[in-house]
Amino acid sequence: MNEAKTLLFLEDDKDLQTLVGAFLREKGYRVEAARTAAEARTLLSKMPVDAAIVDGLLPGVTGADFIRELRKTLPDLPVLFASAFWKDLKSHEMLTRQLKVARIIHKPYRPEELFLWVNQLFAKKLPPPPTGPRALADVDPLRDELAASLVALNAEYGARLKDKVEGLQTLLGEAREGNRESLEQASIITHKLHGTAGSYGFSEVSLAAGRLEDALRAGGDGARLDWGMVDVAFRELAATASVPVMPVHKELPSAVLPTEGVLLVVDEDAELLAEAERLGRSHVVRVLCARTADQALALARKQWVDGVVIHMHLGGEMGGVQAAHLLRSAEGLGSLPLVFTGAKGGLEERVVAAHAGASMFLPRPFTGPDFVAAAERMVAARRPERARVLVVDDDPEAISALVQALASEQVEVVGLGDAHRLMESLAEHRPDLLLLDVQMPGPSGFDLCRILRSTPTWQDLPVLLITAHLGLEFRLAAFQAGADDYISKPVLREELRARVQARLERARLSKERVERDALTGLLTRKPFIEGMRARLSEARRQHRSLALCFLDVDHFKQVNDRYGHLAGDRVLARLGRLLGSRFRREDVRGRWGGEELVVGLLGETAASAKAILSRTMAEVAQMTFDGDGGESFHVTLSVGIAEAPVDGGSLEDLLRAADGRLHRAKSNGRNRIEV
Q1: Which of 163, 180, 207, 537 has CA atoms 20 to 30 A from the CA of 663?
Q2: What is the DSSP annotation of 359-386?
């Protein structure tokens, strides 16, 4: 933004005003805040503003009344209207048509969303971008590898434009002779040109195709078409499509090979550190070296680290375990993946490593394959899973453009050209968001959206519709069908990314709230069961064991009765944090109900799980808790463990066996493990 714009932010909620105001100021806007209509009038009398954000319900007056008053002196001021209530058709028409509101934003909204709409208010006032293929070709490929890919796609699409238009001319000639099928095919091709050409940078072609589409739509069939209007529109399209295509640079710079991850290796042995750096260079992993726990902590706080490889006896007996606890106790590093190294690697050391949260134990010195395996596991654990977006469009070129615009390290994009296969594709790919073209052969985007909203499995899947039509009737139909948002053709890459990212983040947070127990931070029962089924399938495929462990706080009712229910909550919360930090990332941890917690340990037998849980029990026994009255107390755990496949091949078998052994542990005196 070359010149800072001034915004009037009229909102009576002080917290929202503070949050949004700070965000917009950070993005370069000047924000003048007002909490009442009177304050807003005073501000407007003292200074000019470039736009206004007005809440729908203000003290003593509605936002609509304030805007009506505002229009008497500032008829053209861009206004965003924010409300949780103004959603009916009559109100929508009054706000947008009579009061000239640029956009109605439904609460609750995020600052990022508001920022997007504010930017769009001023986007129209900026100089128009170059038309035709130059819109993409002028991007410097040295600065943007994705833009370089788009340049190549742009040239490829432009090279086929002439053939497309010639084919369209043939179809229109056949339609003029009464061939209804040719007319329908011509309408489909014109619609695709309207929506897709602009996404590839051919904005003039897109606009001309839109005018031809309007001319074709004006008649219900070939006999009633105004062929004179069609001919004029087609000649305009043919003229714009014949614009020479910008040449693609023959030699694009080779992309810099991205690093697979960043590993921190903590060891006193200089030769081992040098070998780790060499292996990192060989396998495209950046290696940071530290010789003490303090050096490691300083590096981990300073920059992103995907995982840590620590000598188990760093600085002394089991010193690496203390270093691991130090790292994981730092803010933001609580789930940092760990790998321990040691010369012996006996059962005792491996149990200690697993209890400390290590994903692997490597012999020392480690080999290249061991190092690569550790790096791959830690990078996969540290970096969040890629969100998956499913794009449904009958135009392969539109799918290709959307894939290029959205695909990244954080987002995987899957294309589907046949809308009839939507349900099958959903089951196969399990997407986090769906992009639907509205106008397709067969079921429309509206139809597919209604189907999803009536299917329990997919009722909550975020859906964005892509369309060339943005009239009021369309917008209402989109939301009535159950769509979350819509985006217009030609698709602007920045807007598409912003909308998709906002919806993905909202879906992630919603899923997190649903799947996590608020008190312990562990999985609730349903997602725990789903996670355990996945681990059990993995164990079967890899012919590995799996241990399922029930943990129960002994005499928990007495804790609540004697020390207070808040004290009981503190016990469970602390146990949740302990399980979250002391086990491996691939281990599944949940709250089964009440004071019962449950852990699934992939690759562990009943014996090794017992050794691991024994350390957990000892750590819990040493914890001191405070009662509601200030008194101190301690708790113990009872544990029941089942092992697959020894105790059965199904999750139900394991749950039944582990639960029975937990009851046996309690009957035999508590504070013990039964296997």
Answers
A1: 537
A2: EEEEESSPPHHHHHHHHHHHHHHHSPPP
Strands 546-553 and 463-467: unpaired
Q: CA-CA distance, 652 to 26, in Å (whole number)?
A: 53
SS3 category, 18 = helix
Residue with tokens 């929508």: 92
Task: Look at residue 252 and give its three-state secondary structure.
Answer: coil
- Give the angle 313-317-321 at the CA atoms, nearest 5°: 60
What is the model's pLDDT at position 154? Answer: 62
How far is residue 617's CA from residue 620's CA, in Å, rounded to a whole number?
Answer: 5
Helices (H), 268-344: 270-282, 293-302, 319-328
The count of C-alpha atoms lying within 13 angstroms of the C-alpha of 588, restricted to the half-sphere facing its C-beta, is 26
| Tokens representing residue 563 in the block | 């020390």
pLDDT at residue 124 in the model:
44
Run of H or E residues at 172 = helix 145-176
DSSP 204-233: HHHHHHHHHHHHHHTSSSGGG--HHHHHHH
Cβ pair 388, 414 in contact under 8 A? yes
List, in sequence order, every residue forming a beta bridge with 599; answer none if it has no partner. Answer: 549, 589
- CA distance linking residue 554 with residue 245, whole number of Å: 76
In the chain, the largest separation of any two C-alpha atoms, in whole Å, equals: 94
Which pTM does this prediction carry? 0.45
Q: How far is CA 279 from CA 105, 216, 267, 287, 373, in A?
A: 53, 64, 15, 9, 12
Distance CA 139, CA 404 (A): 15
- SS3 string, 540-572, reads HHHCCCEEEEEEEECCHHHHHHHHCHHHHHHHH
pLDDT in tens, 75-120: 999 999 987 555 455 666 678 788 988 887 766 666 777 787 788 7
DSSP conformation class of 88: S
Q: What size, in residues, is the chain?
A: 675
Going across the sheet that includes 588-593, the strands are 588-593, 596-602, 546-553, 637-644, 673-674
In 244-292, alpha helices (H): 270-282
Closest CA to 336 of 262, 236, 254, 441: 262
549 phi/psi in degrees, rounded to 5: -125, 125
Per-residue pLDDT tens digits for 221-237 = 444 677 878 888 888 88
Cα separation, 415 vs 431, in Å, equals 11
Closest C-alpha among 549, 510, 520 to residue 662:
549
Beta bridge partners of 640: 550, 674
The C-alpha atoms of residue 74 and residue 171 are separated, in whole angstroms, by 51
- The answer to whether the CB of 59 falls within 8 A of the CB of 36 is yes
Report H helices in 47-129. Answer: 63-73, 89-93, 111-123
